[in-house]
Specification:
The chain is an alpha+beta fold and about 220 residues long. It is built from three helices and 14 strands. The longest helix is centred in the C-terminal third of the chain and has 17 residues.
Length: about 220
């Protein structure tokens, strides 16, 4: 089994590879958040179609690492879908089958555990898997270590769910301060930005090769 130890340093991620690809996760409430879409999706779209109603769940999950008087910790979650280009569930990924260790400066988790978790929550293999990790007080761009993780995790995911389309997201979160809520807006080809009343959020999407992947907001 390959293990990845993820350590944070000024918003950057350092990953140590051992045997099997591992992803960062912290402890928290377990569960899945389904999203029912009232509109049909375009399965032939070459972009990731991100429902705006899913943004609120992503915001809550990303901010769940905040603890008063303590440093923010990194959070990992996943999006999955029944079609290759549209997520319809958010997976919190906090069960002990996924998390091996969580601390302020590093987290260790299992990519295999993540996929098993997703399949159990969906009751069938997904056609889309988006692995997301946060960059507290950082930027939504992968580091060199993230790039290495993307490639290794991709191989593990495809071995478990060969039919799934695989992407990765980097979700940057600002420090906490009272601010005006701003609605989600596409600010570049692969990035969406918004603000809660306490934090600024920006998420960007990438292929396993760390190339930018277009995202579009949909109702």
């Amino acid at each position: 089994m390959t293990k990845i130890t993820v350590q944070t340093d000024s918003g950057k991620i350092r990953i140590k590879l051992h045997d099997e690809a591992k992803a960062p996760v912290v402890t928290g409430p377990t569960g899945v958040e389904p999203l029912e879409s009232s509109k049909p999706v375009a399965t032939n779209s070459k972009a990731l179609l991100l429902p705006t109603r899913l943004i609120n769940l992503m915001e809550i999950r990303a901010e769940s690492g905040f603890r008063p008087n303590e440093e923010d910790v990194e959070i990992v979650y996943a999006l999955s879908g029944s079609v290759p280009n549209t997520p319809d569930m958010l997976h919190k990924l906090s069960s002990q089958t996924v998390v091996e260790k969580a601390a302020e400066d590093h987290v260790i988790s299992s990519v295999r555990g993540m996929i098993e978790h997703i399949i159990k929550e969906r009751s069938s293999p997904p056609r889309l898997v988006v692995g997301v990790h946060t960059h507290p007080q950082g930027v939504p761009k992968p580091s060199d270590k993230d790039n290495r993780y993307f490639r290794n995790a991709f191989g593990t995911i495809k071995s478990l769910v060969p039919e799934a389309y695989v992407l990765f997201g980097v979700h940057a979160i600002s420090s906490e301060s009272i601010r005006e809520r701003l609605e989600p807006t596409k600010i570049s080809r692969n990035a969406i930005k918004w603000s809660s009343i306490t934090r600024e959020h920006e998420i960007a999407f990438y292929t396993p090769e760390s190339n930018t992947y277009e995202v579009k907001l949909v109702e």
